[in-house]
UniProtKB/TrEMBL annotation:
Signal peptide: none annotated. Might take part in the signal recognition particle (SRP) pathway. This is inferred from the conservation of its genetic proximity to ftsY/ffh. May be a regulatory protein. This is UPF0122 protein AN619_00070. Belongs to the UPF0122 family. InterPro entries: RNA_pol_sigma_r3/r4-like (IPR013324), UPF0122 (IPR007394), UPF0122_fam_protein (IPR054831), WH-like_DNA-bd_sf (IPR036388). It comes from the Bacteria.
């Protein structure tokens, strides 16, 4: 369940503005504010079934947006690549004593960084 909450929250961050105001409100109340269906229905003056249906329909819409646009997947892939760059830089910093004695080491590591950066820019 936690994975679903996290996934929906991430999808909402990317695609929430594409939803209607009512869909946004219900998703925020349910996922961000952790209100129950009953609490949301009472607050909005609609039936629990209407809240449930809106949540299910909105979840489906969010997953369809991701399937078509893939922004969350692209974001995650970019983050992975940036993390690789950071690890390479940290490794260079950790081994800075090799910079003068093994300049090829630094050149190889810089080539790795350049390759990853180019992958990010191409995608």
């Amino acid at each position: 369940m936690f994975d679903k909450i996290l996934r929906i929250s991430l999808l909402y961050d990317f695609y929430g503005q594409l939803l209607t105001e009512k869909q946004q409100e219900i998703i925020q109340l349910y996922y961000s504010h952790d209100l129950s269906l009953g609490e949301i229905s009472e607050q909005l003056g609609v039936s629990r079934q209407a809240v449930y249906d809106t949540i299910k329909r909105t979840e489906k819409i969010l997953f369809e947006y991701e399937e078509k646009l893939g922004l969350v997947q692209k974001f995650a892939a970019t983050n992975e690549r940036v993390e690789k760059i950071v690890k390479i830089v940290e490794e260079i910093e950790k081994n800075k004593h090799l910079i003068k004695s093994k300049p090829d080491y630094v050149i190889e590591e810089m080539a790795k960084i350049k390759k990853i950066a180019n992958e990010i820019l191409e995608k």
